[in-house]
């Protein structure tokens, strides 16, 4: 009798599962059909907006441009964007994740942004604390010499860190963030530096201090990167930031960028004079100089864009509408701190 009851219960469970399957399939079918209809309407409206924008290129009416901007903003940064075809992925995302659709709905976009900021803040502690611990142990326990294992572990962690940050930043860009491509490229360069450093042997005695001088020079880059504690900050919009903050931030950024290029120059000069002839010195020197130049150029460009945006907002009669249309994953001037 117990066996018959178990069989009947199993049969009822199987029937319920089939009913749920049919209901779920019907729901997904209706949802897909409705979403496809909305997708076609959105694509058609986007094409119409593009034609209207060309036609109104010479229009003198402020209202025309405001209406077009508002409509474009809703399509590109609102809930409509979640059902539009995903933006083309870069090679980096295709290599790591394949051709998947990474476009998320607005509430998910906010979670992605918040998790990115949280991850960046958590890793900043290790990013700054690990080399400080190494330097302390070098003088207190290791008699002026770095053992190879902890140094290589730190370089491997840096490679993982920059790879993860670049991956998350690419996903943010797919979801509407206007993070400048250079800041992502900056992390590609940092990934390459970490990879090169893994091949850069740490030698011990004799004359350990002289042989490991190259490591100390390279670690100057870590001290330069103090500004990376807030790398790729996507919390503020382009309208955020007060003048007092900029007056303090900009000189520090430019000073760090000049120092970054100077360290790269020192590495190249060291290799040229034959003091440390390894190829890693040349590669790291070139990367540091390239990053310093790119950081400086993009910091200046960001300041100019910010200034023009503020001027436009002051002139606009619909400032509140434009601000409400700003994407939640907008980047800010603090992106410059990421490249410092």
Automatic annotation (TrEMBL):
InterPro entries in the cross-refs: TMEM120A/B
An example Gene Ontology CC term for this record: membrane
Main location: membrane
UniProt subcellular location: Membrane
Membrane topology annotation: Multi-pass membrane protein
Residue ranges the record marks as coiled coil: 3-62
Transmembrane spans: 123-141, 183-202, 246-267, 279-297
Region listing for Disordered, in residue ranges: 318-340
Superkingdom assignment: Eukaryota
Keyword vocabulary terms for this entry: Coiled coil, Membrane, Transmembrane, Transmembrane helix
UniProt biased composition (Polar residues): 326-340
Entry annotated with the keyword Transmembrane: yes
UniProt record similarity statement: Belongs to the TMEM120 family.
Protein name: TMPIT-like protein
Taxonomic path: Eukaryota, Viridiplantae, Streptophyta, Embryophyta, Tracheophyta
């Amino acid at each position: 009798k117990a066996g018959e009851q178990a069989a009947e219960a199993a049969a009822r469970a199987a029937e319920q599962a089939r009913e749920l399957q049919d209901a779920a399939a019907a729901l997904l079918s209706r949802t897909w059909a409705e979403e496809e209809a909305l997708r076609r309407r959105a694509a058609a409206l986007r094409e119409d907006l593009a034609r209207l924008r060309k036609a109104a290129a010479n229009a003198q009416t402020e209202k025309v441009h405001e209406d077009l901007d508002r409509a474009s903003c809703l399509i590109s940064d609102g809930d409509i964007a979640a059902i539009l075809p995903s933006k083309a992925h870069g090679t980096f995302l295709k290599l790591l994740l394949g051709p998947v659709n990474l476009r998320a709905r607005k509430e998910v976009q906010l979670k992605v942004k918040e998790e990115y900021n949280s991850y960046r803040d958590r890793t900043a502690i290790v990013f700054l604390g690990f080399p400080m611990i190494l330097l302390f142990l070098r003088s207190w326990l290791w008699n002026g010499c770095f053992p190879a294992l902890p140094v290589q572990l730190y370089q491997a962690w840096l490679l993982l860190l920059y790879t993860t940050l670049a991956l998350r930043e690419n996903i943010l860009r797919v979801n509407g963030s206007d993070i400048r491509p250079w800041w992502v490229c900056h992390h590609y360069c940092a990934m390459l530096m970490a990879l090169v450093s893994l091949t850069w042997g740490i030698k011990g005695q004799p004359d350990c201090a002289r042989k490991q001088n190259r490591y100390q020079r390279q670690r100057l880059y870590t001290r330069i990167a103090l500004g990376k504690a807030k790398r790729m900050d996507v919390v503020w919009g382009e309208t955020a930031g007060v003048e007092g903050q900029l007056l303090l931030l900009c000189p520090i950024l430019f000073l760090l960028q000049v120092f970054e290029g100077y360290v790269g120059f020192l590495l190249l000069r060291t290799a040229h004079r034959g003091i440390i002839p390894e190829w890693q010195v040349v590669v790291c020197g070139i990367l540091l100089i390239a990053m310093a130049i790119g950081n400086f150029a993009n910091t200046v460009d960001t300041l100019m864009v910010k200034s023009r945006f503020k001027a436009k907002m002051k002139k606009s009669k619909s400032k509140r509408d434009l601000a409400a249309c700003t994407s939640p994953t907008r980047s800010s001037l603090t992106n410059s701190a990421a490249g410092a």
